[in-house]
C-alpha cells in the first residue's frame, strides 16, 4: 500500500485503540500486559526448546476473589490435568466443569544447564481467556485473550541448571471488555455463578495448547515479516527483520528450496530477495522455501538462525473474483472448530492430521478458523498441505439481536470502547502471529456482528482501517449475519469480500426448501446488485442427527441435510459472483446447554468423532467434480 494511503488510514484509528497499558492491580510493574511475543519457538543450530506438556498439578480457585491476590506457593491438590487440554470435561466433577473464574496449573521445570549465557523464555501458546505466568512466586507475564500466545523472559530469574516452580493461572471469565464478550450471572437462589455468552460453542478453558521453555542467543532475531510476489518466473520475498536490542551483527538471508538447494541469498534487515524459476505455493499444491535468516559476526560465525517456511504466492481481489496467483479461486470447505470429545479445545495432532485427511478425502480446499485463531501448528500444517485458510479473530457474539428484533448491541454498557480496544488488540495479535503463512489468504475480523446496528459503523470503521494498516497484502472480511441484509447492513463497503452466513431452510423456512430457495436467491441477488465484490457463503447447514433417516426428507434427518445443501449449490451455481462455499460445520461440536441443542450443535458433515453423515458423500461428489472443471 502507498505510504500516503497508509497514513490516512492511520488517521482514522482513534487513540482509544492504542496498545493496552498495564492497569491491572495484580500485575507487577515490569509486566507489560499483552506484550507481543517473538516468533514461534523452534530448534535450530542456535536455539533450543523444551516442551512442558504433560500432567500438571491443577486446582480451581476457591473463591471468586482469588483474582485479587497474586499466586504464591506450591499447589496443594491431588488433581493433575493434562496440558494441552481444556480442563472442563477431564474431571468427573460438575463444579470444575462449570467453574467460573481462575484455575491454577503448576509444575517444576529445570532450565537446561547448557543454556547459560543464553536468553530464555516461558511461552504459553494460549490460556483461555486470561493467563498469568508465575516463576516461583513472581508474576512474569499477563495476557488477556484466549487464543494467542504470550511469553515471559525468565533469564534473570532462574540460573541455567536450576529448577523453578512454574504456575500458570488461567481465567475463563468473559465480559464486555473481552473477546468473545460475555457476562457473569449469579443465581438469586443459590449464589452459583454462571458464565453467559453470546456465541454457539462451549466456553472451554484452560491450557489447551502447548507450553514451552525456549532459548535464544543474546543477539537474536525477534521478528520476521515476509510478503511475497512474483513477476514472470521470478519470485520475490520482501522481508523485514527486527533483532534484539544490543544486536550489533549483520543479518544474512538464504532461501533454500525443497531439495535443500540454496536458490537465493541476501543481507540486511530489510530487502527483497529474488528467486529465479520460482515454484509458487498453490492451493492443493504447496511449495515451501526455507527463508533462513541468520545473524552473522565478522568472522562469518553464525550467532542465530531462524528458519521460516515461506510459500510464494499472491492474493488479489478483482471485481467479483478472488485471485490466488492470478487465477480465480473458488473456496470449498467448512467453518471448523477446535473441538473434540474429552479434550475440548485441546490441541491434538492425531485429530489435526486426520481432519486434514478428511478435507482431502472430501475434496475441500479451504476452511475458516471460525471463530478464533487456531493453533500455530495448524497454520503451519495448512501451509504444508496447500489448504487455504480464512483466519478469524475471536470477535464472535457481538450481536444481541438474534431473535430479539430492535435490540441494540453497541453502546456504553454493551459492546463499547473497551470491547473495541480488546478487538483491536485481537487483530494485532492475530496478524502478528499469522502474517507469514502462505495458507492465510484473508483475515476475517468478526463473525456475525450486528452490522445493521446504528453503532456498527463507528465501531468497525477504525478496526477495518487498523487491519489494513497492519497488512495491505491480504483482503479483509467479516462474516455477515442473515438479518443484516444488503439494505440494512452498515459496514460491508469497508471490506473486500462479502462473506455471508445463511440458514434459509433451517432457522427460517424450516423444512420448506422450495421457499428457502426463493429466499436465498433473492437475498444473494440483492448483494450482487449492490456490490461488485466476490461472495463466499461462509455458513450454511442444517442440524442433522447421524443415523436419523426419513423417506419424507424432514429436518434433522441425513436426507434433509443432503437436500438442503444440494438446493444451496443449485443457487450458488446460478450466481457469477459466488467465490466459494463453506458448509457449517465440518464436525458436530459442543455448545453450552440449552433447549435448542442436544449435546451440542449437530450441523457437522462429520460427527464429533469424525464419521461421515450422508452429506459428506454428497459433498465429496460435488467438490471432486468442481476440482476437475
Ligand atoms: C451461526 C454462527 C455459528 C453457529 C451457527 C448455528 O450463524 O456463526 O457460530 O454455530 O450459526 O449452527 O446456529
Automatic annotation (TrEMBL):
E.C. designation(s): 3.2.1.31
Domain Glycoside hydrolase family 2 immunoglobulin-like beta-sandwich: 220-313
Any GO molecular function: beta-glucuronidase activity
Signal sequence extent: 1-18
Residues in Glycosyl hydrolases family 2 sugar binding domain copies: 51-217
Domain of life: Eukaryota
Enzymatic class: hydrolase
Pfam families in UniProt: Glyco_hydro_2, Glyco_hydro_2_C, Glyco_hydro_2_N
Domain Glycoside hydrolase family 2 catalytic per the UniProt entry, residue ranges: 315-627
Swiss-Prot/TrEMBL keywords: Glycosidase, Hydrolase, Signal
Biological processes annotated in GO: carbohydrate metabolic process; glucuronoside catabolic process
Family of this protein: Belongs to the glycosyl hydrolase 2 family.
Annotated protein name in UniProt: Beta-glucuronidase
Organism encoding this protein: Pseudogymnoascus verrucosus
Amino acid at each position: 500500500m502507498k505510504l500516503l494511503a497508509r497514513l490516512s488510514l492511520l488517521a482514522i484509528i482513534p487513540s482509544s485503540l492504542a496498545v493496552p497499558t498495564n492497569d491491572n492491580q495484580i500485575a507487577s510493574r515490569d509486566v507489560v500486559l499483552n506484550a507481543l511475543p517473538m516468533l514461534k519457538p523452534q530448534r535450530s543450530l542456535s536455539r533450543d526448546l523444551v516442551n512442558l506438556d504433560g500432567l500438571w498439578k491443577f486446582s480451581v480457585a476457591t473463591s471468586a476473589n482469588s483474582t485479587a491476590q497474586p499466586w504464591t506457593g506450591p499447589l496443594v491438590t491431588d488433581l493433575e490435568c493434562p496440558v494441552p487440554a481444556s480442563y472442563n470435561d477431564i474431571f468427573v466433577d460438575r463444579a470444575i466443569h462449570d467453574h467460573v473464574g481462575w484455575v491454577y496449573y503448576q509444575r517444576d521445570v529445570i532450565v537446561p544447564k547448557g543454556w547459560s549465557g543464553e536468553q530464555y523464555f516461558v511461552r504459553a501458546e494460549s490460556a483461555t481467556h486470561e493467563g498469568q505466568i508465575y516463576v516461583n512466586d513472581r508474576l512474569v507475564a499477563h495476557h488477556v485473550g484466549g487464543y494467542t500466545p504470550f511469553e515471559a523472559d525468565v533469564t534473570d530469574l532462574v540460573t541455567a541448571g536450576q529448577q523453578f516452580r512454574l504456575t500458570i493461572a488461567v481465567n475463563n471469565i468473559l465480559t464486555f471488555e473481552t473477546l468473545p464478550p460475555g457476562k457473569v450471572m449469579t443465581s438469586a437462589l443459590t449464589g452459583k455463578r454462571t458464565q453467559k455468552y453470546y456465541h454457539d460453542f462451549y466456553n472451554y478453558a484452560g491450557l489447551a495448547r502447548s507450553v514451552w521453555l525456549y532459548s535464544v542467543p543474546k543477539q537474536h532475531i525477534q521478528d520476521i515479516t515476509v510478503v511475497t510476489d512474483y513477476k514472470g518466473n521470478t519470485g520475490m520475498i520482501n522481508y523485514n527483520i527486527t533483532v534484539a536490542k544490543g544486536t550489533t551483527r549483520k543479518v544474512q538471508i538464504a532461501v533454500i528450496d525443497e531439495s535443500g538447494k540454496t536458490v537465493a541469498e541476501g543481507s540486511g534487515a530489510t530487502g527483497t530477495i529474488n528467486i529465479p524459476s520460482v515454484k509458487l505455493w498453490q492451493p492443493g499444491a504447496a511449495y515451501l522455501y526455507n527463508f533462513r535468516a541468520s545473524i552473522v559476526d565478522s568472522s562469518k560465525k553464525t550467532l542465530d538462525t531462524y528458519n521460516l517456511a515461506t510459500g510464494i504466492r499472491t492474493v488479489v481481489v478483482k471485481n467479483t473474483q478472488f485471485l490466488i496467483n492470478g487465477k480465480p479461486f473458488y473456496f470449498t470447505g467448512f467453518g471448523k472448530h477446535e473441538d473434540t470429545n474429552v479434550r475440548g479445545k485441546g490441541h491434538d495432532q492425531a485429530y489435526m492430521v486426520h481432519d486434514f485427511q478428511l478435507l482431502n478425502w472430501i475434496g475441500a480446499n479451504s476452511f475458516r478458523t471460525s471463530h478464533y485463531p487456531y493453533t500455530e501448528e495448524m497454520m503451519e500444517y495448512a501451509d504444508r498441505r496447500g489448504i487455504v485458510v480464512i483466519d478469524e479473530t475471536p470477535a464472535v457474539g457481538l450481536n444481541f439481536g438474534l431473535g430479539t428484533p430492535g435490540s441494540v448491541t453497541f453502546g456504553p454498557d454493551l459492546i463499547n470502547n473497551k470491547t473495541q480496544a480488546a478487538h483491536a488488540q485481537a487483530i494485532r495479535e492475530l496478524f502478528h502471529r499469522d502474517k507469514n503463512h502462505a495458507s492465510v489468504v484473508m483475515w476475517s475480523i468478526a463473525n456475525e456482528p450486528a452490522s445493521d446496528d446504528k453503532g456498527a459503523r463507528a465501531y468497525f470503521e477504525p478496526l477495518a482501517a487498523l487491519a489494513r494498516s497492519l497488512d495491505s497484502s491480504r483482503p479483509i472480511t467479516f462474516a455477515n449475519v442473515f438479518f443484516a441484509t444488503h439494505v440494512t447492513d452498515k459496514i460491508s463497503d469497508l471490506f473486500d469480500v462479502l462473506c455471508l452466513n445463511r440458514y434459509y431452510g433451517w432457522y427460517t423456512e424450516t423444512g420448506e426448501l422450495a421457499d428457502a430457495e426463493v429466499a436465498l436467491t433473492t437475498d444473494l441477488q440483492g448483494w450482487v446488485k449492490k456490490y461488485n465484490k466476490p461472495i463466499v457463503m461462509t455458513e450454511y447447514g442444517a442440524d442433522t442427527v447421524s443415523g436419523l433417516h426419513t423417506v419424507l426428507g424432514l429436518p434433522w434427518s441425513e436426507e434433509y441435510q443432503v437436500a438442503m445443501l444440494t438446493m444451496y449449490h443449485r443457487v450458488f451455481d446460478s450466481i457469477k459472483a459466488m467465490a466459494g462455499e463453506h458448509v457449517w460445520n465440518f464436525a458436530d461440536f459442543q455448545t453450552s446447554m440449552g433447549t435448542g441443542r442436544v449435546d451440542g450443535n449437530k450441523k457437522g458433515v462429520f460427527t464429533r468423532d469424525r464419521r461421515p453423515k450422508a452429506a459428506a458423500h454428497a459433498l465429496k461428489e460435488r467438490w471432486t467434480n468442481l476440482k476437475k472443471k
